[in-house]
Each structure stands twice: as structure tokens, then as C-alpha cells.
Write a structure and sequence with these properties.
The complex is a heterodimer of chains A (about 425) and B (about 425). Helix content of chain A is about 50%, strand content about 10%. Chain A is an alpha/beta fold and about 425 residues long. The N terminus and C terminus of chain A are likely disordered. Chain B has a three-stranded antiparallel beta sheet with strand order 1-3-2, with helices on one face. Chain B is globular, with a radius of gyration of 24 Å. In chain B, about 45% of the residues lie in helices and about 10% in strands. Classes of the chains: A alpha/beta (about 425), B mainly alpha (about 425).
Amino acid sequence: MKSPDEKGRTKQSSRTSSGRASYVDESERDLPLKAQMRRLFWTMGCTTSLDVKLRAYITGEQRATGPQEFTDLDVLSIGFSPSGKPHLTLADCKTARARAVERMFWLRGVSEFFVADEAFMVRSNAVPAAARTLSTRLGVGVVDPDDLRSLAKTYHSPVDLEGPLRCLFDVDSIRRHMENMSGLDRKLDSLVDFVRFDYWVYEPFRNLTQVIAHLAEAAPALNPGHPRHLGVFFQTAWQYAFALARATYSIRTSRMAEIPIAVESYVAGGELALREKAQLGILLHKAGISVDPRSGILPPYVEQLTELVTRVINKPAETGEILRYAEFLATAVVVGESATVAAAFGSANVRPVAAKLLADVCGFLVTAAGLRPEFRAAARARLVADLTGGAETGALSMVGIAGRAPSPLVPSEQANPAQLILPPSDRE
Amino acid sequence: MEAYDFGLRCQDVNSGLRNFDATSPTLSPLKQTRLVGMAADLAALVRETELISNMSALESVAAQELDIPPTSFDSVLGVLEEVGFVELTRTSRNQITGLTSEVPHYRNLYITLGECWRNRLPSQLEEELVCIVNRLASGPIPRETLGELGVDTSDVPRLLDLGTRTQLIQTVSGIDGAILYSPFTAFENPKVLSDLAEKHGNDQLLSEFDGLRRKQGLAVTPDRFPLLYDAVGRGLLLAPSVELPNGIVQAFATLPYTLDRGLLKGEKPILDKALAVVACIRCGEEFGGYSNLPSPVFAIDKLLREGVLAPHSSSARQYLLMRNKGVVAYGKDTMPWGSWIVPTLIDTADNRRALQIARDLITLGEPMVGRDSQGARELLASDARYVTPMKTVAKNRPRLAHQEPEYAKIMAAVMGWGAL
């Protein structure tokens, strides 16, 4: 993360914000530390995002109108409470020795700004005793190399992180994934800027429509045959899944019995905003602009979105895995890792429902944003093809997935209906 | 008829034919209708199951529970794939190995299937039969009025022969001719129908049953609804009664139409409870005493959601029938000095089901139980936690899907869902 003492570098970074040049050089030294924290968070069962950049669009200054970057978050980890509330954890990863205490105060402010639940200051060398003293008072954890090793020993991932998932923790792969957002077709600039910056500063409800709007703008230039474009697509799928997770939590805790109304209200920005827009629609209609007073005030895909929200909200235990699968795919397609989600997470641990729901998210994005249908096919090939018996690629057979696929020797009429699909762990 | 009705009645026709020999040549004129009806049943079955990899097991469940012949199974899947309700995984040899479910929860299943049915160009006989089944869902009709439904008079004998042999149409004969009614209608004693038609005339029969269909739980009085009043008196219609503020006992007539035959027989107590709810709620709506219920649906929703209704001075009188049927208990007034009773839901599965049926009757005109393949779904060991009745928003007609293109971008920007 950049603090005020790194002002010069911050300015340089904001000049390259349109994605035309590499932005990863300045954080190169800290990358191994970020990779280690990402691994730790994964063993905790969380999903992560590295180098989350926060910026705002500044107006009113004669020479500086335009986007300006505030700071960035080295590692953002997201977990979920049983009720689906996102639990956000920040990790500030630095190899520099200086100013550890000041950084803790700064990190406290950043986590307040980002409404994070926890924050850790992670260092590659010993930290001053004063920092540890402040830790409890400020609510900022302190992790030096010894702490990190000890922490890592206390968490054990049921998923094999050394197989295909290794690309998430390998420094070269992480670098390639980060660089994926640089040097793309200029027609994708708006989408790239949104994915890298704006997504993180918009109010959460806006992202349910903004992701689609930016994807739709970029649709003509997005090529599903291009691994880098596919990486951008899965990155947006991750972001959309997170936006959905926030929406479903809001709906679950506010209006669970009336999901269609709750979705409309959430998308509009609240009950009051919905009424304001309805009034605006009526005024526009009176002014001669044809607008349906009911459907015109919401995006045309709101009914499909309601279906998607309903599917996700009905399976609260899957939310975290949906995001982890998207995170894996966003990196895997860029670095050439060809394993399916089932193969990467292993037969004993893959959650078919989560994979299917992510396929639904991808399918929805394709439909709502008017992307080429091959994006949908690519997502299904990685997510559900082998989980529904299409294991011709040899990635994983259904016997391996559920452990109880019917024997070809057993006549179909003897098949036990209760064996149909899901392993017991998927039942809620 | 609209696409919604076509889709809905395809399921009715298929449901009526379930116990019929699937290979009978009698059924060959109804091929498209049965296919779409089976698709509706299968859609309900797989809706809550996100993905299926054991197709042989699904085929077994479909055959055993939904009476979908294995020979038709792939065709039914083809219909669901065509309308986008499932996505099939196939091998390179085009063998289906699994599916993922995309069956909507809120977008209307029946509109989509109804459109599909029309696109498949059903035979004239199918169209006419579906039309008759749809009309009979509203109540009985005299045979001679079939022509008014658009049925070709030359097809009537064949349709009636087909309808009665397949038991999709029931008839009672009287001096003035035959009266047709649906086997899914909960008539207590259908033989009375011809007597009523004879006494009150066919026009009265049609208009009063139409009124009943439009408002389940109709307060029938001898002056406003003489035929229905008579029908209640003769035991044709189910009509629980509630005491009004003036002491008169008022009958609230209902005519349930349901595919769930169990509801009319073995589970009749649940239907009785549902009708009691309808009567009490309608009483509150029209004869509330100090004040009337503003919305009958809100009252049912509140009971389902919160388990209690706000008390008032007439609560004890108004909800007596629900209490006697074991749907609610009378709780104590929450105010220490108060003496009103608080209607409190006795929270059992049967009571919740009864409330849901009552809600469907009031909002849609017919209960939706029996359309969602519930029993078969349980066999699938679905992991669903939140099951929305397939049709609670059934009458939501599709909204304007597309705005005029020239304003689309303006509207996106104005309403905040365009790119910022």
C-alpha cells in the first residue's frame, strides 16, 4: 500500500492508470510477501485480491481534473459469516524497515475507509516493539516472518495448494496476472480502469449494473479466443460474484420473503431512490420521452438478475467457493494453467453447486452485456462440463466427483434417485 | 387465451392423462400438448437441483413419479433445452451425460412453455381441447356453449369422446342437455349441476360461476347469487360460514381447481383449513366490524411471516372458524389491560400449506399445489433451503422487455445503470 510518504510514486502510478504501461514494478519487491499472505488467507478458506487500488474522480481543480489515486491495498481477503456477511481483511505487505509505527496509524485509517473488519501489517523483517504495543489498541495485527511461519502452521487447507492452484501463489504467475491488465487493446481501457479502480470505490449497489455496463461497452473488442481477454472476463466474474454476495447479504437481512422487490430496490439504490426514479420516469414520459413507468426505470436485465440472485441466495454456503473458483480461473487462463475447477480443487473438495453458480454468473454476464457466447462456453467447459459427465477431456470423471456414479453394469431402472447428484456436504 | 394459459393447461392435460396407457393411439392427437405438459413437470422437478450428472437416475424418477415414459424422456429434455430451462452436457456422440438447471424462479415458466407449445404448431384438436380445459377451470359449462369458445362444431363429438375417454372432461346429463365440468374441480356432488342449470338457466350458471372464479370466497346471498346460494345449499360447493357483526351466518363459496387429487381426498383436511382461511379473511375484508382488512393477502403473509395478526375488537368472531379448524390459537392481548384476542398461527407444516393454498386461491383463483412435483423433488434429495412456490407470481405478465432503441442509452444514463 502507498502511504503519504510515498507520494511521488503515487503520482507516477496515477499517470499510468489507463493501463498503457506496467504498474507492477513498484510493488515488485513486496510480491513474495503478498503471495505468502494470499496463501495464508486461502488456507483460512478466503478469497483474495492483490493490489486493490482506490482512486476518485476529482473535479474543480484547474490542472488536475480527472482520476487521482488515494492508495492501494496490498492484499484484500474476503470471507463470509454464516449469514453471508462479507468479512474483509487487509494486509499491508512491505519489505521496508522504516516507519512501521506510522504505517500502523495509516493502516487503521485505510481499514476504516474501506470498512474492513481486520487489518494486518506484514513485514519481511522484525518490527519495533512499539508497533506490537499499539497492535491491540489500534486493532491492527502485526506479522513478522516468525509470526507468519507460526500462523501458517496453524491452518491447514483441505485443498491441495501445490497442484493447479499453485499459480495463485507463485510469484511469476501473480506478476503475469497483474500485468494482464496492462497493454491491452485501447478499446478495453474503460473496462480495465473500472476493474482496477472504480469498482472498489463505487457504492456496492452500483456494481451490479456497472460491471455489466462496462463489459457491454467493451463487448465488441473482447475476444473469447484470447487468453488475456478471457482473464479479464473471469476477473469481472469474480467482481460480479462479490457484488452479488453483498447484494444477497443485504437482501437476506432485509427482505428475504420478497426477493424480486428487494432486488429492484437494491439495484436502484434503495426504496427512496427507486421512487425517485419512478417519478423521473413519469416526468420523462410527460416530456415526450417514451418510457415505461415500471420497467424503464430499471435495467432491462433485472428479471434475469432476480433469478440469479435467487439462485445464489438459496445456497448461502457456496458464496465463498464461487469467488475462489473465479479467482483461480482469472489467473489460470492467463498463465496457461488448463485444469478445470474440479481438477484443481480435487474430487473430495470441489463443490459442484458453487461451480454451477459461477457458470450462471458468467452466463448472465454474457447475456446481459451482449458478449460473444464463446465466453459462456469457455466458462462452462472449466466449471461444469466434467461435473455433469462430460469428462472427455480427462480432467476428472464423475466417479471421482461424487464417488457414486452408476456402474454401467447397473440397469438404469435400478438407479437410486437419492444418488442423483450431490455429495452430502452440499446439503444445507 | 394467452401463452400463460396454454402452458398452464398443457400441464393440466398431461396431468389428466398420467394414468392413461401412454401407448394408446387415442392419445396420438395430443402429442405436443403432452410433451409440453411433461416438460412443465420435469422443469419443476429439476428447478431446485443445480446440476445433475446421473441422468439414468433422473430418468427413473421422471418415469416413476411423473409418468414420463423413458421413450419420451429425451424429447422432454429437448423441449426444456429449447426454451433455455436446462443446459445439457453431451458426449461427442451426442449422448446426454448431465445437465445444469436454469429453470426460473420468478420469470414465468408457463408463459415460456405456452409460447413453445404454440411454436410447435399443435393440431387443431389439441388447441380446441386445451381451450375447453381452460374454460372448465373457471367452472362448469353447458355442452351447447362449446361453439362460443371457438371450437369447430364438427370437432365437438370427437373432442367430447376424447375428453371423456381420457377423463379430462366430466359430464352430467339433464333434461336441458349435458353440463361439462373438470375432474380437477372440487365439486362435492356434481350430479346437482344439471338440476341447477335446469332451475336457473345456462346463462345464470355461466355468469355466477365466472363470478366465483374471479373471487374465491365469494359471499353468496340468495338475492345476488341465487344459483350459487342454491349450490351451497345442495352441497355442490364448499362454503365455510362465518358469523357477521349483525349475527347472520354468512357462507363464503369457493370452487378449488387443483391438480393435486390428494388434496381432494386424503388431504382434504388441509383443503378444509385453506377454505376456512379464505372465508375468515374474506369476512374480514368485507364485514370486518369496526374496520375492514385493507388487503387479504397481506393478512395471510403476515401470519406466515410473523405468526400473529394484530388484534381488534372483532378478532374473536372473525377468526373463530380458523381457530376451530386448528389453524390459529387465540393468544392473550399484549396490552396488560386489554381483552382482545391475538390470532396466533399454530405453526405446523399443514397449516402453512393451508395458508399458502388460501393465498393462491385469493390471488390466482386456484391453488398451485400439485404443479411443482414436490414429492419427486424430495426424491432428488435436493439441497434447496428456500423453495418459492412456482407460481406465486404467476400472473406477472412480462414487462416491456425492450424500450425504444433511441431512448435506451438516455434511459440507462438517467437511471444510473449505464456506464459511469
